[in-house]
Specification:
By secondary structure, the chain is an alpha+beta fold. Helix content is 38%, strand content 13%. The chain contains 7 helices and 9 strands. The chain has a 3-stranded mixed sheet, with helices on one face. Strands 3-2-7 form a 3-stranded antiparallel sheet, with no helix packed on it. It has a 3-stranded antiparallel sheet with strand order 6-8-9. A hairpin with a 2-residue loop joins strand 2 and strand 3. Helix 3 packs across helix 7. The two termini are 27 Å apart. It binds pyridoxal-5'-phosphate.
């Protein structure tokens, strides 16, 4: 679900939108990635559209785009400073262009799977809850809220269903920065209570049924 972007843009500081998991999402009919000074997108294999590895920088600010290009195009440069060999190959670009044509159908399929999961789970088990909103969400992940995600994960594994804990406590940014975890109770709590169900366009209806039935038996619905 897109962030409350107004709260950030109203601070009048340059905003970098991380849209790695959000291509196609919208706020009030406007695509995410168009609200800040610059946006980044990831086209890694597991993302909403893929070029294998790689991604995209989007900005309406020509200086930023020129700077990004300059970092990437390292050959035949007269000024020496660090640049990076991050060029996307033509083959990857061709895959990306073909994927882009299918993006709408990929996102629709993900939404359809999400609708099925919403049916299988009670309201308090789903995060964020399904509500009418000006925000158009993208189901990159489908998050179950549970006080013991590890137990649910093992249960699902025994049924042949792989789930993941999307963010572990040790990955939280404030931990990297050596801050006191008690000062970040919300992210600490979320990291301990979330599990991500399989959701991707090629997941078949039979597989979705199997996942729903496993959830039903876990929660004894
Ligand atoms: C939210 C978010 N930001 C950034 C990245 C990094 O993208 P990449 O792996 O293409 O560098 C990812 C990838 O997992 C991500 O999920």
């Amino acid at each position: 679900m897109p962030a409350d972007i107004d709260k950030f843009t109203s601070l009048n500081i340059p905003i970098i939108e991380d849209c790695a998991q959000a291509i196609g999402a919208e706020i009030n009919g406007k695509k995410v990635g168009t609200f800040g000074r610059v946006a980044i997108f990831s086209f890694y294999a597991s993302k909403l559209l893929t070029t294998g590895y790689g991604g995209m920088v989007f900005s309406k600010d020509k200086n930023i785009i020129n700077k990004a290009r300059d970092y990437r195009e390292f050959d035949c440069r007269q000024e020496y400073y660090p640049r990076f060999n991050f060029l996307m190959t033509d083959f990857q670009a061709a895959v990306g262009r073909a994927q882009l044509k299918k993006l709408k159908s990929f996102l629709n399929r993900r939404s359809k799977i999400a609708v099925e999961y919403y049916k299988a789970l009670s309201k308090e088990k789903v995060w964020p809850s399904k509500s009418a909103s000006i925000k158009k969400s993208i189901f990159y992940r489908f998050i179950v809220r549970d006080s013991q995600p590890e137990t649910l994960k093992i249960f699902m594994e025994k049924k042949g269903i792989k789930t993941i804990i999307p963010i572990e406590s040790y990955e939280l940014l404030h931990r990297y920065l050596g801050e006191n975890p008690q000062d970040f109770p919300v992210s600490e709590q979320i990291a301990k209570t979330t599990l991500s169900l399989p959701i991707y366009p090629s997941l078949s209806s039979v597989e979705v049924k199997k996942i729903k039935s496993a959830l039903n038996s876990y929660y004894e619905k």
